[in-house]
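Reviewer 2 asked us to include a model.

Predict the structure of this chain.
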Amino acid sequence: MRNYGREEKIVSKSKVIVSHEPWNELSNLLQQEQPDLLLLEFDSHLKALHVNVNDLLTRPPCDVALMRGKISSKPRQVLVPVRGGPHAELALRVGLGLHPKGVATLHIRRADDPETNIDAPFKGLDRVLKQLPEVQKQFEVTDDAVQVILENTKKADVIILGTTSQPVTSSISMGPVADRILREAPCTVIAVKRGRPFPQVVYDESAGVEAISILVDKWFAENTFHADEFSQLRELVELKRHQGVTISLALPALNEEETVGKVIRTMKKELMQRVPLLDEIVLIDSNSADGTREIAEKEGVPVYIHQHLLERLGARDGKGEALWKSLLVTKGDIIVWIDTDIVNIHPRFVYGIIGPLLVNPQIQLVKGFYRRPPRVGQKMQAGGGGRVTELTARPLLNLFYPELSGVVQPLSGEYGGRREALERATFYSGYGVETGLLIDIYEKFGLQSIAQVDLLERIHHNQHLEALGKMSFAIIQTVMRKLETRFGRAVLEDVNRSMKLIRHDSKGYFLDVEQIAEYERPPMIEVPEYRNANDDRILARPSWADGLERKRQVAGTVASCAGFERNGTQTGACPAGEIEGHALCRHLRERPSALLPDGGTACRDPGLDRHPGAASARDQPGRLGRHVRRRNRGALSARTRGTEEKSISRPRAERRVAPRCGGACAGGGE
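Predicted model (structure tokens):
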């Protein structure tokens, strides 16, 4: 433990207590400090504290881990037996904390156990494990669980298991399984018990209700950034040049003449003239009735009215429609959107979004979040805002997409992503665009493809309550549509897309019906006008994103090559036998829409073997490259491109600790 204590990420402090009742004094201290975990050596610490196992585990002051043996160096293999009991989440957390890349889980059930009974408590944990590819999974059916565990300990350096969930009756027992493992295991053993009390011991799905926090906390710690991390703009420009990517800023607007000019001037001056981070800025106007377009034209940026683009598909109102059509009129490999009603505009609203996309090629979408003090009259009221986020969006995501529950402000209007991902996403035309896009990117590319960045404070004008009600109605429709796709059955009917508003005038109350329908736009890459305008771009790049998407759709299918048509039908086999294991071989140059099931990125054609933005961490120059490797907990090389690497100044607590948002996170986007 001293070896771990010497690491920079560990903060230590000393406190001396002299007492005839050391355990009582320590318990009081723990209740004040509220640590995440109390680690005690078995059984020397118990003797020194004058406490037995029964007293310690019956009412633990916090999460407790009892360790037998020593960890002299970083363990190569950590074994975590998990059946889905109440302490399984804690055992897995401790294992990932010791060695994130070396954990193996062992799920055991008895041969005579009804499958439904054993699967229910494991269901929550199983969902999490499926999204942790770095964790090895093993399943066993046996009547002698202890023997199977002991056999597997021969390959492990450390074993971590939960204590019994039943009431402890013996003063020296942690449960029959833990007792025997402690006596007979040849490696270090850590037995854990959760500090929060259980109202009763049940073996149903509620046993795994908190398991999702393992995944979400891990994502929060690794994929949450701060805008200040990317304030060295010349380093971002070097990363951009090194990866050979271009960046577009698209500004959606509707009657924003008061603020749009300052937004454009700020971004042009700081991110185009001072440093060449942005390659273009375009305004996507929604047919403003004020001087928004004239101001933008005066500032020298291209202006498009989204209702006049792709007119054959019909004109729809809504911000989502503008964002979708912005893909048609921008050229960048990375596209950033920010709202044009920001009063306290600052370049961080853009470079904060760009930064994670440049330092981590796995990230496809970056969401901004911020503090949003609303304006009440002429005064700013700090700490409020985000009503639709907290009352509608986040509860829905927690209920149906709990993996996304760590996204602080899913409705924020400041976000961006890689074109290859965005052009394959479904866009909703109205208020549901942010929610739909977030869910779509998660479903196609996984949780690790999403990041978020703290943009500090955003000041804007709040909307009135009726407008927020309409926004909530649209967001609920969006989530329902996504669930219909997931479960393959329709729930909503078009007749229910109208909102019945209760109004009041001098004559009394009356009902006003307003249609608020969230309609989908197909992935832009399916639109012929877009494909015709981007043929060179599509043909020149590997179908990397296609491979990931197709992998989820037709896993296990053997793809063909020469006969693989645009509609996905297989009419022939690859004559060279090169298709399997490759995202785009030379035989598919003329068929850019062919989607492969394996999702690989390598190809025997050296000109196609890498995504242009997929520079690995070891290739990243300068301070930001080092930052990527720190996040991924990998070893750091000393030099890249002849430049000495520097450390990035980010508070360690923000790097390593994943705070739980619960329901207290500030809302955004409305």
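The first strand starts at residue 38 and ends at 41. The CA atoms of residues 139 and 309 lie 55 Å apart. We have added this to the supplementary material.
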